[in-house]
Amino acid sequence: MRDIIMYQSSGEDELFVEKSTAELPQPAAEAVTVTVEIDAGQTYQEMDGFGASFTDSAAYLIHQVLDEAQRTEVMSKLFHAQEGIGLSFLRNPMGASDYARSVYSYNDLPEQETDPSLERFSIAHDEADIIPLLQQALKLNPEIKLMASPWSAPGWMKTSGSMIAGQLKPENYRVYADYFVRYIQAFAAHGLPIYAVTVQNEPLYEPHHYPSMLMLPEEQREFIQRELKPSFRKHGLNTKIFCYDHNWDRPDYPLTVLEQAEAEVDGVAWHWYGGAPAAQSEVLAAYPDTEVHFTEGSGGEWIPPFEQAFSNVMRTGIEILRNHSKSFVLWNMALDEQNGPAVPGFGKSTCRGVVTVNQQTRELTYTLDYYALAHFSKVIRPRALRLGTTASHEQLRSVAFRNRDGSVAVVLFNDGEAEETVAVKLQGEEVLTFSMAPKSAVSLKLSEMQV
């Protein structure tokens, strides 16, 4: 008999609740409507982890608005593997993003000035809120991996002269590569190793109301090949380089980069605001030695609460993993009651954080994104290996992993409109049968298996 841990979400009143499998009613065999088969002999990607981003806004809310007791609670619930949900992958904006209280880089200069030797480079801004929280997170979970993504190069390096819009000037490719190196070295000095960087957040999107930088695939390829990777080698950095960092609807972008720069690129990063997760597999099929990472997806007011929004994270998260991603990263770790703060001039924000910190009342609440992430991160641990799964009914979405301790994690989502009686089989052995309401999620952790 296997030990089984079960978590279930079936609505706003039941979010990620641990269930005793011993108390579950045992349906008759003929009552089973869906069978999920787990094949431990079929293996795919190894997970790096699940998480979100400590944007300037998120870090400020958690580090300055919450009191010490609240901060201790939320950090434990986010990152501790036993007392919380064990998040293990964090994406940090390199400088300001759309969710920052001001527009800043690590080398801001007066108009018309330049600093090709980066003498005025400083990460002092991040030392206030972001770095202390990253250090605390690493203490709670030493397996955390940190990645970094710029929304823009410093304005003086660009055609616009600003962090808003514009492109990187070719003559500044080398100094911008040095900027990445200085960032990685500065974080390492704080005990924060940078596991990976992306070259540019959403390089095909050039908004004029927050930091952005247009970077065409040919430009990105040249920057990586000519300057970024050589600079990493020169300074002995093993930080991985991921290209693209944008939506599923343009797989031609990473394919163009990889066509000539495959040797210098470690992975492709994806967002969910256009296209479908199958794009991840399309690019992987063409370049099978290149890692797949999902680095940003935000919930928000454009997806009606509750069921549709929770379902979106569960459904899409499972498909992201089934399409070979080694990470699943949502957007802001925290936002306030106005879905901010956002950079001045941003306008109305509609995004949703993993937690909400009310700046007026200082109330801390955990959003449905927290509970949806929990369904994955609590049972699928770092370096887990994805196993093959098939379901006899396409509306029952499934993904399974074998953890390093030998346990098997299974995440299921009933995407249909009817209740299903689900039988889970591992290597042909039926391990559990239970009912799943429409749009409900179940996560299982099965005790060590022999392989």
TrEMBL record:
<dbReference type="GO" id="GO:0016787">
    <property type="term" value="F:hydrolase activity"/>
</dbReference>
<keyword id="KW-0378">Hydrolase</keyword>
<keyword id="KW-0326">Glycosidase</keyword>
<dbReference type="InterPro" id="IPR017853">
    <property type="entry name" value="GH"/>
</dbReference>
<feature type="domain" description="Glycosyl hydrolase family 30 beta sandwich">
    <location>
        <begin position="384"/>
        <end position="443"/>
    </location>
</feature>
<dbReference type="InterPro" id="IPR013780">
    <property type="entry name" value="Glyco_hydro_b"/>
</dbReference>
<feature type="domain" description="Glycosyl hydrolase family 30 TIM-barrel">
    <location>
        <begin position="48"/>
        <end position="380"/>
    </location>
</feature>
<dbReference type="Pfam" id="PF17189">
    <property type="entry name" value="Glyco_hydro_30C"/>
</dbReference>
<dbReference type="InterPro" id="IPR001139">
    <property type="entry name" value="Glyco_hydro_30"/>
</dbReference>
<dbReference type="InterPro" id="IPR033453">
    <property type="entry name" value="Glyco_hydro_30_TIM-barrel"/>
</dbReference>
<dbReference type="InterPro" id="IPR033452">
    <property type="entry name" value="GH30_C"/>
</dbReference>
<protein>
    <submittedName>
        <fullName>Glycosyl hydrolase</fullName>
    </submittedName>
</protein>
<comment type="similarity">
    <text>Belongs to the glycosyl hydrolase 30 family.</text>
</comment>
<keyword id="KW-0732">Signal</keyword>
<dbReference type="Pfam" id="PF02055">
    <property type="entry name" value="Glyco_hydro_30"/>
</dbReference>
